[in-house]
Design goal:
binds magnesium ion, four-stranded antiparallel sheet, 137 residues, binds adenosine-5'-diphosphate, Alpha-Beta Plaits, alpha+beta
Length: 137
Amino acid sequence: MNLTLGIIKPDAVSKGATGKIIDRILSEGFKIRAMKLVHLTKKQAEGFYKVHAGKGFFEELTTFMSSAPCVVMVLEREDAVKKWREVMGATNPADAEEGTLRREFGSSIGENAVHGSDSEENAKIEIAYFFNQLEIL
Ligand code: ADP
Ligand code: MG
């Protein structure tokens, strides 16, 4: 079993898709070990996405991620990092496979409904950005 960080991004929360996305998470065999609603400040969004600092989309991304609340979750499953990225689909919803969350709920490459860690190493760093040990069951 391993852990990954999932985020239901502001676009999906704002359009009322949170419940459907959580249903999907559970039906794919994940256990939710921690979850909270957070409205990131611009600085907090910049800290979370600091690997992308300097890229053309950084300003758009961090403005979007701090525009409204999102739901952050620690997800547990066998092969959690890889499996959650499969369930999310490709970064650009237009390229994401039918049945993926980004295909269903994303509206553009920027506003793509969900986030997932890209490696076990980054999952540890990203989980620690939002949760302390006592908050993870
Ligand atoms: P992923 O979220 O699939 O791991 P990246 O780590 O490459 O993708 O990018 C982080 C986030 O930045 C994406 O989920 C998306 O919201 C945003 N993003 C990536 N590329 C672009 C782009 N070309 N234009 C606007 N936003 C982008
Ligand atoms: Mg990424």
